[in-house]
Input
Amino acid sequence: MKAFISWSGSRELLIAKAVKAWLNAVVPEVRAFVSPDLPKGLAWFDTLAKELKDAGIGFMCLAPPRVASEWQLVEAGAIWKAARSGGLFPLCFRIRGADVPEPLRAFQLTYFDKADFQRLARDVATRARPDRGWTPKRDQAFESSWPTLRASVEDALDQPDNGVHTTRGFIHEIAGGWWERVRSEKGATKLSWMWFEPSVDGAGLTIEGRGFGAGGLDASRWQTDLVSIQAQLPQPILEYYWEGRHPRRPGLLFGGKCRLQFTVSASGRIDEGTGQFSDVCLNAARRPTIKLIDLRRATTEEISIMKEKGETERRALAGRKLEAWA
Output
């Protein structure tokens, strides 16, 4: 049986090669193809199209920051059409199911842990050799090859990848919780908690924000999906328009435009940034103000408190965070 292994980006290519070696060890009846296997001197697209057409099953290596490129979705459609029997396996490496684009969620996702990959190996073996299926010999091969696969994948995920220059990759990388320190023209400092939520298709972004003053007191609450993204390196830019109200002055509507500029590390991670935003009262005659911003990614513990704990814990954390940052 022929298999096609799809990838996008330098990390996924390393993972695809590791998956191919693993398949060869556990289910040698499967002859897996990765696009760098294309022979020299041939038209790459024609050869690639033939491999897709001949594939009985296909594997999609999905990893941050790209998750699934537009071209991978084209390959997925070709594999699905060729296999006709549901032989498409999206493999998730260090990503959540929610990060996977909607067309691929219709297939049962495989996550990178030993138990799930063993189930995958059993299914592939049954497809490749229905008369034999899973045997003690295959089980032994799986046990001996798993440590090598795990080490290769973890090493690949630690490698730099410039996928954040794509809109989808950038959105995936900044998704989650962020702290925003806001400094006014008068020198006053406030803190905002922001949550970046990718759209279902991974191509858009919704932002929810909540401002805190000294001692963790409420300052504002707002939400927007009016977002513009410029994902080019070395410093991707996110701009958005926002509107919100102060809890103690609900009759006044505030709004403005914000511009955030993120810093990309050598490994492709984004953990900090800077920016500025305009703040104006939209239903009263007041002069707009310009405020400066410093950004930091929230830790896992901080996200847990802000998303799952009660109001007392959230305000206490915001107060501590503002005091330490100021």
Observations:
- Residues 2-159 form a domain with the Rossmann fold fold (CATH 3.40.50).
- The two ends are 62 Å apart (CA to CA).
